[in-house]
Every structure is written in C-alpha cells, then in structure tokens.
Amino acid sequence: MDLDGIYRAEYGRCVATLARLLGDISIAEEAVQDAFTVALEKWDTPPPNPGAWIVTTARNRAIDRLRRESTREARHAQALLLYQPDEPEEVGPVRDDQLRLIFTCCHPALAPLAQTALTLRLMGGLEVPEIARAYLVPEATVAQRIVRAKKKIRDAGIPYRVPGGAELPARLPPVLTVLYLIFNEGYASTSGDLVRTDLCLEAVRLARALADLMPDEPEVLGLLALLILIEARRPARVSPTGELVTLTEQDRSLWNQELIAEGHALVRRCLKRNRPGPYQIQAAINAVHTDGPATDWVQVLALYDQLLARSSTQVVLLNRAVAVAEVHGPALALASIEGVDLPGYHLLPATRADLLARLGRTGEARAAYDEAITLAGNDTERTFLQGRRAEL
C-alpha cells in the first residue's frame, strides 16, 4: 500500500476542505495528520476514495477534540455546526477550497516568506527541511515563520476566502508566486524522486481556476501558459530507466502537443494585451523551446534580456547564461555569471561545471561538479551530475 503517495496526493486537498469546515488551519492540519495515522493502523488496502475517507475521519476527530476541549459555549456551537449535513454558504466567487486556502495564506498581513512557506507546507505537504532547502534558509527560520503565520491568521481573524474583485489585483503577486513554487517543487523536487506529478498537475489545475477567476489579467494567463508548456515536456524529462534527460537531448515526439498548442495560444493572447510581465516572458521563452524541431537560442536570449530588465534576479542571470553559451559560447557565458551569488543552490556550480568542461578546464570542472553533487538534494539530479563528472 502506497500510503506515502496517497499522503502527498491528498494532503493539501484534505487540509483545505477541513480548514473551510473548521475555520482554523492549525486544527485542520492536526486533524488530517491524525486521520492519516488512523489510516496507517486500519487500512490493509486503500478505500476507493482515500481523500473522502481522510476528510470524514479528520472531521470526526476534530469534533471529538473540540467537544473535549470546550470550556465555552462558542466551542460547543462550533463543534455542533460540524454535524450539519448541508455545505456552508460559499463566501468567495469560486468554489475551490484550495484556491481559498492559498489566498488566505497569501494575505498581505503575512511576511512574504511566511506566505510561501505556509502554502507549500499546507498545499504541497512539504516538510520543513524541504522548504528550508528550497529557500536556502535555516530550518528553524521556516518552522518559526509557519507557526507565526498560522497564529496570525487565527488571531487576526483573516477570512478564509477568495477576495472580491476589487481586492484581487493587489493580492495576486504572492498567489502567482506560490503556484509557481508548487509546480516547481513538483517538476524538480528538493528531495527524493525528481518529479512529483501530483504537485505539477495540482498547480496547473489551480492556475486554470485562477485564470477562470481573472481572465483579463495577463500575468495570470502568462503563469498558466508557463506551467502548461513546461508540463508538456515532462514525459520526456526522465528516461525509461530513471535518468534525467536534458532539454536538448529530449525526444520531442514524447512532448504533449495538445498542451503545447494551448500554451502557445495563451502566449499569443498575452502578446495582444501588450502588458508584458515576468511570467509572460518566461512563458514566451518556453514557447520558443517548444516551437519547431530545435530551440531558436537567439530568440531565447533576446527574451531573457527582456526578462532581466523586469526581474533582475540571480536565478534569471544564471538561466540567461545557458542561452549566452548557445549563442556566444561558454567563455562569455561563464563571465556573465562570475558575480552571481546563490549560496546552497546546486544549479550554479552545475552550470559553471558544464561551462568549464566545454572550455577544457577539466580540473576546475571536476571541483565545480563536486560542489554541485554535494548541494543537490534530489537523487536523480545527483546521479546525473555524478555521471557528467565521470565523463570528464
């Protein structure tokens, strides 16, 4: 029985549903964790609908807990409400518990790291060490931010809802960020297997729901296009024997052409609006990667220059170097990342190693690969880097 797989696939949905029913994220999370403990004891084989079983069990255990701990009439009333068979009245403009939970976690009263860390914990079921590795910060910092964020949501009475239309644009940036991070964790997991398909598909589904909610926001369409175009390449990303396959080496016949067509159509819709933003430009880069039998690296580099003008981050500089190497050669690419500072990020030494190897600087390349291998948390990527080092 793959209880770990069920946990990863159902945890976020179950917590979101229980948070709506209970109105308290911490109690919802504890109840879901308790329900999975019960499942471990009782299941010989999973029921037909594991998520529904978990929600029902978690709800019953939460009722018992609230009744035991009730010292005031309000607590009794809260517990009794859970017995009602009718669904609570919908508050937000969409009927999606997970989207509501994301907007709650991304409330502007919370610090940016708290917003994304809490969302990754609740929606992705990521553990604190995984989130800490993704953000390159100490585990204690992440744990403290998550605890404080849940307490602030409770104490400040932050509503569990998707905000109204007038509030949506201002609340949008952190929501886009966490959806991107959820997908990215699925596409390149910080530990274990390389790909977590459940997170990739869930991020795409939520991005679609957000696009339905805000169809005139170009960056929402840009994010959806970006996720779809990356998701289209996922079937070719790992070989049948489990090895990582780089973009240039992938079998393009395995790419999902239906998703590629949809992604390209979304990029064209964004271009017509003429309000470019970082997600739209990243989507355009991935549209170039999926257009034709080979990547037009000159066009990709031009798009990275546009992205750099709007989002001058260290990761963008590093990614741009890959295009620089294809257009102008590895020497200029290596020079372009000399000042990049990404402590603990394995792709920086991995990129340097590749460029050094192409320049024939084998000793330096080995040292860079050693650093990347040490930093890589993902088994598949670590094996890939070890293979590249062995080829030198």
UniProtKB/TrEMBL annotation:
**Biological process (GO), any one:** DNA-templated transcription initiation
Judging by the UniProt lineage, the source's domain of life is Bacteria
Tell me which residues make up the RNA polymerase sigma factor 70 region 4 type domain: 102-153
Q: Family per UniProt?
A: Belongs to the sigma-70 factor family. ECF subfamily.
Q: Which InterPro entries does its entry note?
A: DUF6596, RNA_pol_sigma-70_dom, RNA_pol_sigma70_r2, RNA_pol_sigma70_r4_t2, RNA_pol_sigma_r2, RNA_pol_sigma_r3/r4-like, WH-like_DNA-bd_sf
Q: Tell me which residues make up the DUF6596 domain.
A: 171-270
Residue ranges constituting the RNA polymerase sigma-70 region domain according to the UniProt record: 7-70
A GO molecular-function annotation? sigma factor activity
* Species of provenance: Dactylosporangium siamense
Q: What is the protein named?
A: RNA polymerase subunit sigma-24
Task: Note whether Transcription occurs among the keywords.
Answer: yes
Keyword list, A-Z: Sigma factor, Transcription, Transcription regulation
